[in-house]
Predict the structure.
Amino acid sequence: MSSDDFTVHIVDDEEAVRKSLAFMLTINGFAVRVHESATAFAHFAPGARDAVLVTDLRMPDMTGVDLIRVVSKLPNKIPSLVVTGHGDVPMAVEAMKAGAIDFIEKPFDDTVIIEAIRRAADHLRDRTVTSESAADVRDRLASLSDRERQVLSAVVAGLPNKTIAYDLDISPRTVEVHRSNVMGKMKAKSLPELVRMALAAGPVA
């Protein structure tokens, strides 16, 4: 879908972040509208058409996860992305379970969020769009060892390597090796992509 055919709605309680992201997207050809709070967008959303939502996770009035839950129940479906710090990955995974299309980890390159917005916009044209079919993902899951599946399940839950290592009684370095093997076998280029695959396939373990 062309960037002329939809509007990107940015929700962040920090004015500087809103302005910076809005400026970057505008000069890249996107129509942009900013909202200073999740509550403000929640009131606006029922009337939004051809909209893509980019929201921060941690906001004082309503979390990004709660906003995604509100938006996902609307008849005018609004594809949503969440922007997260590294420590908020479990929250970002929860947002995807609530209906977010993707999450972007800070700091991010402009191209990363632009590509994510375009992927989300594809859902406006075709609600059945997925980056990977569930059948393909399940085939890849079948290639994982039992230990790799355990590590994948923990990663999707948002657990850090040290916690996974402790829970599985292995070293953090071994966890890194398993994570690398999982990424390779699943053909995932990033953590968000791996999470998308796992959620598409259903329960990992």
Observations:
- The two ends are 36 Å apart (CA to CA).
- The chain has two domains: 3-125, 134-201.
- The beta strands are 7-11, 31-35, 51-56, 80-84, 102-105.
